[in-house]
Amino acid sequence: MNVPDRTLLEMFETMTRIRLFEERVTLEYQRGDMPGFVHTYIGAEAVAAGICAHLSDDDLIASTHRGHGHSLAKGCSIAGMLAELYGRETGLCKGRGGSMHIADFEIGMLGANAIVGGSIGLATGGAFAQQVKGTSNVSVSFFGDGGAGQGILYESMNLASIWKLPVIYVCENNGWAESTPASYSQSVEDLSRRADGFGIPGHVVDGADVFAVHKAAGEAIGRARRGDGPSFIEAKIPRISAHYVGDTQKYRDEDDLAAAKQRDPLERFGSELTAAGLLDEAAVEAIRSAIVEELDRGVAAAKADPWPAADGVTDYVYSGAYGA
Ligand SMILES: Cc1ncc(C[n+]2csc(CCOP(=O)(O)OP(=O)(O)O)c2C)c(N)n1
To answer: What is the CATH number of the domain that holds 269?
Structure first.
């Protein structure tokens, strides 16, 4: 393990934060007073944590409909996210965005996106902005195997390659796009191979292995910061969670689902840190209970917070930090 202990523990805490947030949101959503749809990131925590561990608030990310994990790993507050999920004025997007549109420009979170593949153009544009400004900041686009079917990925990769934009394309290949298996809809098994066609280095990593993700991300981000251009990381991470909360996954083979659950990244990382003497039961419990308290406070506050006024429904839609 040549990653500093502090970073390892921070990544474990981030992954635990994501897991507990998603479990709590699932519960609260099932109670029926959270509007809209919720897609959880359970099982993919190592990807967001391993990548975002390399980023500062000045770096950018853009995310998907399954964006809670990316948002938390980038530093969005639990309270602000919960208020957003409950549609309240105090939410990160003042209740206008909901689960699939969480954004926080202050910390470089350009936004989750209900449009599959929507993160790709945003993150590529963000990378271009950093290049024009002459910073060494990078921009990360998270998308799924389904998102990799969108044409914008190929237009963006071409532009990013010829202009050497500091962007990292992170494909979370969980084998499914809703109920369509990647084995049916994708022409190659390793989607990262497609980056070759644009002169972009592509890497496959085990998305349940936070060490592998962290290492691949470090190389790709270092390359982008040095001005050497984009990279493509394909994290293979079988989908543990259903497509959305409430999806019964009847279309899925039971063995496939059971095998996915065997690869729980949080359990695996916890055992590795325990074996290395960096964690014990009491430390895990302390981390968990602090997060649970934050969630309790966040849920109670969000439920008591005001709804946006009906006549303000279009406020903030076309203006803000990135211009009118
Ligand atoms: C442009 C567009 N087409 C279709 C949809 C409907 N849709 C929502 S999620 C989804 C599947 C996305 O799969 P993937 O990108 O692999 O992400 P995952 O849900 O597996 O994380 C689809 C087709 C959409 N939201 N946007």
So the answer is: 3.40.50.970
